[in-house]
Amino acid sequence: MRLFGHRLTIPALIGMIVIAVNLIAAIGAPVIAPFDQADVVGDAWGDPDPQHWLGLDNLGRDLFSRLIYGARMSIGLSLIITCLSFFIGITAGFSAAVLRGWVDLGLSRLVDLLLSMPTLIFAFIILSVLGTEPPVLIVTIAVLDSTKVFRLSRALAMNIAALEYVEVAKVRGEGLWWVIRKEILPNAMAPLIAEFGLRFSFTFLFIAALSFLGLGIQPPNADWGSMVRDYRDMINLDSTAPLYPAGAIAILTIGVNFVVDWMLSIHSRSHGAGA
After folding, report:
1. pLDDT tens digits along 21-54
2. 223 by DSSP, 3-state: which?
3. What is the pLDDT of residues 261-275, one digit of tens each?
4. Per-residue b/e over 152-178, b at no fewer than 16 CB within 10 Å?
5. CB under 8 Å to 264, separation ≥6 — which residues?
6. Which pTM value belongs to this model?
7. Phi-psi sector, 173: left (phi>0), alpha (psi -120 to 50), beta
8. Contact of 126 with 80, CB cutoff 8 Å
9. Sign of the C-alpha dihedral computed for residues 226, 230, 235 and 241 taken in this order
10. Which residues pair with 2 in a beta bridge?
11. Which residues contact 23 (CB under 8 A, 6 or more apart)?
12. Hey, what domains does the chain have and what are their CATH numbers?
């Protein structure tokens, strides 16, 4: 099987199926889930039955429904944060590479300062002070993650900006945004797309970790990290409840990485052929 003119490997195909299933679940949660995520429909830790496929949780809510709604919250929030971090990182990285001088120096030192601090601890402090509302969560993680995007986009843009056609565009009088949009971005797109997948996985796991610590998505909204936290003690009673959200986190992360590995291999082959 081929996709966009490239041979699709079995792991990449599996990854795309996993991503598609999760996206369908996230988008169609109100239709697919038999109950609302906050509805109490029975006794706590009720056993699975034809109406409640995975049983009930610690408050008597349908586990399958919460798993579906958890996909919407976890994946949706991760996509928003990753898109925002890429907008910030690429804009700053490309600007630093094209303008050079004090702009490059100032942005690079700011990024170095942010990178010198442990990400989880820094996010823990910010969220403890400002609260865990979605806008605060989105901006905090996006700014922290944009530092990695800045380093990559700056390095890519530095190499591209040194090429003759970019210099010609500058001499011709083209502005900063024209050079970035028309000359640098199209030639840096392949590695940036692969990096998007990696940063999404990191953000997805980071939100799950924050939720597990109680600083991520707050009740009654369902997300997989907080579900693992709420159900973790049941593993001692031979309950499989904690395994469902933990397995969903692992499967989606592996699926995304399968697709990213395939895209990186395509880029490597294309780069090698071009060389």
Report:
1. 999 999 999 999 999 998 999 888 888 888 988 9
2. coil
3. 888 787 666 555 444
4. bbbebbbebbeeeebeebeeeebeeee
5. 191, 194
6. 0.87
7. left
8. no
9. negative
10. 7
11. 75
12. 73-274 (1.10.3720.10)
